[in-house]
Design brief:
Mean pLDDT: 87
Low-confidence stretches: none
Radius of gyration: 30 Å
Number of strands: 23
Distance between the termini: 69 Å
Number of helices: 26
Shape: globular
Strand content: 15-25%
Amino acid sequence: MIRNAVSSAIQNKNIVMFATAVIFIAGTAGYYNNCAIALAAIVMALGIFAAAKNYCRPKYILFWIFMFYLGFFNASLRTTTTDDLAPLAPRNTVIEGQIVTVPKAPKFFFEVNKIDGRDVTGKTIVTITQEDADFSQYEIGRFYRLTGRLSMPAKAGNPSQFNYRRYLQNFDTFTTFYAENTEPLNRDLTVRWRFMNSLNKLRAGIITKHAKYIKSPNLEVLGGIVFGDDAVQPAPEIKDSFRTSGLLHILAASGMNVAFIYGFWYFFLSRMRAPYRFTVISGIFLVLLYTLMTGLGPPIIRAALMLTIILIGKLIDRDTHSVSLLSFVALLMLLYNPAFLNDVGFQLSFVVTFGILTMGTYLFARLKCVPLWLSGSIFIPVIAQIWIVPMQMFYFNTISTYSIIANIVSVPILSIVSFGGFTASIIAVFTDKIGWLDWVLNYATGAIVWISDFFSKLPNALGSTIQPSLWQMFVYYTLVTCATLLIKRFNKNLAIACAVLLVLLIPIKLPAAKLEIITFDVQNADMFLIKTPKEKYFVIDTGRSGFKSGGSGAAYILLPYLVDRGIKNVETLIITHFDNDHSGGAVDILEGVNVKKTYVNSYDNKSYTSKLVYGALENRDSTLARSGETVYEEPDLKMTNFAAPHNPGAKDDNDGSIVTLLHYKDFDMLFAADTSAQALRELNVPSEIDVLKVGHHGADGAVDENMLGHLANKVSIISTGPNRYGHPSANTLNFLSGTDIYRTDIDNSIKIVTDGKNYKVYTWDIAHRKYVIAKKYRAAACPF
């Protein structure tokens, strides 16, 4: 039975090409996700099993094994891992080079050919930090001299943290540059860059002509649909509205726009009785022009390649199979640039298209009584949402509740805007007289804005979700595939398989009655999350605020972690003191989750950060920490604060930090904030603890021999990173040498899990994106 099914499947070109593409993608994914050996073992085992059972011919097995390794070696050979700039960072410097992407305020990619007068080869991403800078002066292809700071992107040393360093590597970029001064250079451009510069100027000129008749936010919608998301940047509230309504994809050119543009072009020329070959060939050039003007995003490239191949096939009387064509285009794109696989737009585009080509084809075949234009308008958004929802949850932790309805209503208007906007833009190349077309487009784009605004303001328009596991996503897509086959032809066994898969999809959460403490890697700052056996959550310190235009450590590390796990309530936030590296992200935490109570060490701090925090604490439950005060209790667990008497006139806030003792059965951990050894003595902290969070990032005076003899801790944790203070100091490290030292700058995020009798220390493995065990310990009972 299985042999017959496999033999029949191999006769299907769609299935063979699809299997080839999937295996090639597996090899590429294996390289980027450091799991090539495991995937290769699976492919080899399946191949040997299929050969032993005589399920398919050996030539197919050998071909597919070859495709797996081709995917792996293509990725490894075409991916660069460093350049001349990376070893030179961090430093204040002067660089010269060329802008190689369309500038999108305040950033652009910059090909560097000189640094401090020395020839180099490398690419960096530039952020213009000048206030009120005229960003229109920066043009793609032009050369500039930039003065500023060259840095390495922060490593993703935490779970749920966006790996910006890895993201930049997809563009062969390994550094960031914050430019404080810029100077244009008069250098000749190559033919390629003259063309790109002229094309961008043409696009900007067209948008300027549209701006005479269409105002914000309608202009941003038109610019996004016709020219891509880097054409006209929408205001944050517009992006939020479209994101909430599930229409954010409209603000970026997509494959759907390619179909609309060619469809209208073919319709009009057919009605004008234009020759068939002229219609097709001119349509190909129209699609290629649109692709260039939108900035060559992966979804547009995918759609343009597929449509071009289909049209060429029509010209030579060759039919193309939809799924095999999609698979072939994926292979072409990944052979050219394997890093496309890491692009979320690439993934979403191919998954949605595959769903429409399979599920849509079978569904429309069963709905022959319904006009295709009607069934397509209704069911394509439904199918797209079915195939996209787990990826939306995985990457964005959200579900747009009314997305399907909003898209169904918007699709007819979007088709008008796509073709009408592109047509008006072509006319605008030759004349300013586009007001009559823009009058229609203004109403059409206004209708889309109104639809987005309407659905975004409905109750529960955007749902927050946990991040699904890869296993859940696999089960979900297997379930959807089985459901697709059931649409084609009902099969009792498939129906049973769907029911079983549906049960497997439901997450079964087993309670882990253990204490967990996470030390987040927030460079030379502090941020901790505690989960009690009763699953209550506590946060101690929140890292520093963002640099320049960046977000705080809490915003891009802690909040994503909480959202991924569906954590909406924090019992207590302890802000140990108001140094920015401890309190800089407090406002983000207070506004991002429900914090029931906040402890602070002062209400009269005068720093900029403290004023922001005090403002956020208005109408919230907060209190001044007192020494010996119990923060929280549950069976066998107790959290206690130790705080020095508040001294408003003190110059140094460090020794006035709140110190917290976490006690669970025989396990004890002391969070020393930024206090010194002398301050700990004055607080009379307990002895014989297990873990010490070393004070002040390991600075001089954080510990001494007497204090360590008193504490008798086995494990020392130092939260530190690149800094100009010399943290941790050699003296402190020498004092701590009798303990096991874990440092966030070396070990990344550190996690402790304990049942109160024994505890394990884990460190975050960036390459494999998981915690790995470092060492097991026996807890020592504390007399406290």
